[in-house]
Request: fold
Amino acid sequence: MARDGGAQGIGEKRLLYDQLPPPQRLALAYASARSRPATLTLLALDARLAAILRGRRESLAAQLRLAWWRDTLASPPMQWPTGEPLLEALRDWRDPSGLRPLVEGWEALLTEELSPPVIAEFVEGRGQAFATLARELGAPRPQDAAAAARIWAVADLATNLSQAAERGLAIDYARGLPPPPRLPRSLRPLAVLAGLSAAALADGGRPLLTGPGSALRALRIGFIGR
Reply:
């Protein structure tokens, strides 16, 4: 499991938490004490990869940074460099290499033209990453975690696309996804994100958090799971 202890560890976790967008912070509030460290680590890794794409000034620089994460996650943790809080949090995972598809999904978005295959690769990358988290937490049916993460992935993508035509592609893709499955308590943050995402997609791809309705929905899912 990810490291969880000591003053340094607390400071590192605060640093990771501060990198999260508001929906992820809200969802993390419903994590159990046991599942919170690993869930935070995965959400922070996803946020870091998203920031690489948002902050890119040229495609090559983003490609190199994403390739570094992809290659690092594919290598044994004993070979990782020290001093990177995300890597330190991942060092004790049973299979951090299972997060490599997440990087590959973000890499797919570097394409000049968004298309259904590109969307599928991004969505599947997040799905596989959360299946890995489910296995890390000992949750049953990792495929359910993947299915829920795909819904969040496409909704989050639609929200962050500035062009209406591209947003339409993402929403069209979402129509082929099944509704969010019921998830175990250890994956409650993902259940919150998937529930918010399903509602956002049904409303034309709006942001996940808009008005009191979304906050109440998150509260309901956070407490009862649906």
Summary: Confidence is low (pLDDT under 50) at residues 1-5.
